[in-house]
Amino acid sequence: MKVGFIGLGGMGQAMARRLIDGGHEVGVCNRTAEKLKPLTEHGAKAMASMAQPSTKLLAILIAAAATGSVPASKVRRAMASNSGRQRVTASLSPATSMPA
């Protein structure tokens, strides 16, 4: 499965790494470029934007520390670039998570 991951903090790094370890193709995008390196060294593809035309993603996962950290316009561009394909967008934020 081709998966895009926006937001590579602690949660995003761990989840993207598990997807790579599971054999999935993972594209990663983050505001700060240095967070890309550990994942690209592990097999992820660094992307300047999730809306790169060559990208055909099945799922786009967003791991952000706060609601609004990833602009809605970025998500809309990513979804538009994948038009005509089945896709899922999931936002993962501690602010919106339920306590255990």
Q: Short summary of the structure?
A:
With 100 residues, this protein is an alpha/beta fold. It is 26% helix and 22% strand.
How would you describe this structure to a colleague?
With 100 residues, the chain is of the alpha/beta class. It has one domain (2-94): NAD(P)-binding Rossmann-like Domain (Rossmann fold, 3-Layer(aba) Sandwich). It contains 3 helices and 5 strands, in the order βαβαββαβ. The chain has helices at 10-21, 37-40, 72-81; strands spanning 2-6, 25-29, 45-46, 59-63, 88-92. It has a 5-stranded parallel beta sheet with strand order 3-2-1-4-5, sandwiched between helices. Strand 2 (25-29), helix 2 (37-40) and strand 3 form a beta-alpha-beta unit. The radius of gyration is 13 Å and the shape is globular.
- Percent of residues in helices: 25-40%
Low-confidence stretches: none
Provide the gyration radius in Å. Answer: 13 Å
The first-level CATH class is given as Alpha Beta
- Let me know the average pLDDT: 75
Strand content: 15-25%
What's the CATH architecture? 3-Layer(aba) Sandwich
CATH topology: Rossmann fold
